[in-house]
Amino acid sequence: MLRKFFLICTLTFLPINSLMAVDWGSELGDHSGVDLKVQSIMDPYIDAVKEISPQFETATGATVTVEGFGYDGLHEKQIVACSQQDGSYDVLFIDGIWIGEFVEADCIEPVEDIWTAEGTDKSVIAWDDYIDSFAGQAIWDGKKMCLPFGGYWHMLHYRKDLFEAEGLAVPETFDDVMAAAKLFKDNPKYPELEGGYAMNMARGSAAGQQYYEWIYSAGAQPWESNYPGSPDAYADQRGLYNSPESVAFIEWMQEMVNYMPPGVEQYAWDERAKAFTQGKVAMINNWSVRTPLFNDPEISKVMGKFDVALFPHAEGAESVPPVGGWIACVNKHSKNRQAAWDYLKWFASPEIHREWVLMGAPPSRHSAMNDPQINAEQPWTPVLYESSLRAWQELRPRHALTFELIETLGIEVNKALTGESTAQEAMDTANKKIDRLLKSEGYIN
Amino acid sequence: MNKEKIEKLLFIVPTCLFLLTISIFPFLYSVYLSLFQAKLTKMHKKFFIGWENYQIILFEDDIFPTAIKNTFMIAFSSITIEIILGFIMAKIFFEIRHLKISNVLRTVTIMPIMLTPLCVGLVFLYILNPTLGIFSYILETFFGIEPFAYLGQPIPAKISIIAINSWQWTPFMMILLLAGLMTVPNEQYEAAKIDGANWFHVMTKIEIPSILSFVLLGIVLRLIECIRLFDIIYVTTRGGPGIATEVMAYFTYRTEFRSFQVGTGSASAVIILIISLIVTTIAVMLLRRVEKNEDFS
């Protein structure tokens, strides 16, 4: 059944032209003497970016310098630099949810304008080869602003060995997750485990993003017009953060804290992944970009002992796996915009993307998801592909207030999780603050 | 204008220009921005809203008032601990001042001041880690206390911040009070000894009154430092859990450089400056009164 599903997907989404090799000699210009600077997140894929970039150097004569920063630091540096019309970095890797803010700040040169003016061969871009839920991250106001390259989707990562030992089925619902987490927490049979489950619960972005990652699968929605399949997610942004379903979800998280490791209230992305890598928790939900790390014998204690499954859902709700990831943009203030564009279209092309993924990076195109070699090297790809097809692109707000809004929400969620306020109080406050924020910028009346 | 006046002006003008560029202009620009709804990503679209930013952060939002409260709670608790421990340590070093080893010990003791608060925060972040930290390990191994997230719960997080802050700055207070103790004339100790005064009498009647101006100086300097408290919070708790350790400087940073709401951020910066001015003015007035022996003679 699953095989048939993927065959249909492959035939439907895989454009023939994406498989064809590009003549890079005629497609790329001569950029000898150009030092192209790429500003990136310090995510696990950065080594693969550094590894593959010399091919571009050979083809164009340019030198490529890739610099990595932490999540918050990258956002801060990029926006501040943009406000000063700074062109120090030519290529900006930005989180898909920052797109509205970067457009507002006039930081990026829309790629659609560039390729239209240049008449770029469509097979180089192969936009249809991008998975919709991820491609949407690079579009703002109907225009393709950047090129998607590093799509992430959330999957449930669980310890196959422990589940088999306990005769447990793979968790599908929130109740399954909680029952399994409860079983593994403080279980004398597994003294190495410090908790059954780990989530991002640290104040701010971590807890705020965690909320958005789960809320649709909890059967709720964050604001009036945002639900999977909504024709216009931003039509009515009045908050539903304090809806009964949303509050019930926070109460579920509060209970889950009991089955998590001590200190989970300070867990963000790294801590969550480390807990699983070190074999301290039996389950996590995690972005696919970190999945290869769990199979890295140098850092992982769970190599070969884990498996992945679809993101869990509440009883009666559907699984809506979170989507995120990174898109590559041309800095509007760069002096090397032509070289930057050449790098972008080369790096994001299906051919180079495949090579990049085989270096350990996350697959983000239909062609990569269906590639036999990638499937062999990253055996979680079928589940990832199914997750990517079920995901909802407007998972988190992508307008200019996204960072502030997620942070505001994350503070209130964290207050509920640390007992500073009840779930209802926290979400009432979050709703009030977010509505005020949106009103102040004219997003709602 | 005669030559002398021109010479004086030539000396003064660079200083004035420096002050104007480095302090006065940024301050005035902050006041100006605080009256606008302004975001760094669209400064060209900023618009005048009067005192609304002040009204929002002071009266409509709970975070900044909590940040003010937290800042002063942390300052008051830290400084109190620093004075008590600093005085005890100063007394010990005062008593052993004739020993050669006292110089070495004093140098070792003041090492925390030499570390940047960022490093101190990082070190304590590891020490207090519930699963990997040595603090939890010691408590669990020797006292059977279960690992606990000291920075993950509101009250323990506050206590941890106060403890970290006090650990770093107690040596500073110690040095200051030791300098004060060194100024007490030896004759006073001899007279007290002849009169049969015990250690408590010596401490309360001779030493504390003599070093009061040093204590106040320490309070003023530390108060200014505590109002600017940022690095330790940034590294360890980021103002959390919830808003339990949110302080004024961190709120301003967050508003300015994470949300890029420069109007609101400027308003909070102006409030911090006003609070600092009020607090330091009061403290300096007290210090002057002590120096003149008006109330404490």
Short description:
The complex is a heterodimer of chains A (445) and B (297). By secondary structure, chain A is α/β, with parallel strands linked by helices.
Q: Secondary-structure element order of chain B, as H and E?
A: HEEHHHHHHHHHHHH
The biggest sheet of chain B amounts to: 2 strands, antiparallel
CATH architecture of the largest domain in chain B: Orthogonal Bundle
Distance between the termini of chain A: 49 Å
Annotation keywords:
heterodimer; A: about 450 residues; alpha/beta; D-Maltodextrin-Binding Protein, domain 2; 2 domains; 9-stranded mixed sheet; about 15% strand; disordered N terminus; B: mainly alpha; MetI-like fold; two-stranded antiparallel ribbon; about 0% strand
Record the SSE blueprint:
The complex is a heterodimer of chains A (445) and B (297).
Chain A: H1 2-13, H2 24-27, E1 35-41, H3 46-60, E2 63-69, H4 71-83, E3 91-95, H5 99-104, E4 108-109, H6 111-118, H7 122-125, H8 132-135, E5 139-140, E6 143-144, E7 147-159, H9 160-165, H10 174-184, E8 195-198, H11 205-215, H12 244-257, H13 269-277, E9 281-287, H14 291-294, E10 306-309, E11 323-331, H15 337-348, H16 350-358, H17 366-369, H18 372-377, H19 381-390, H20 402-417, H21 423-440
Parallel strand pairs in A: 1-2, 1-3, 8-9
Antiparallel strand pairs in A: 3-11, 4-11, 5-6, 7-9, 7-10, 7-11
Chain B: H1 3-33, E1 36-37, E2 47-48, H2 52-60, H3 63-95, H4 101-109, H5 111-114, H6 117-127, H7 134-143, H8 154-182, H9 186-194, H10 199-227, H11 231-236, H12 248-257, H13 262-291
Antiparallel strand pairs in B: 1-2
Helix pairs in contact in B: 1-13, 2-13, 3-8, 3-10, 8-10, 10-13, 12-13
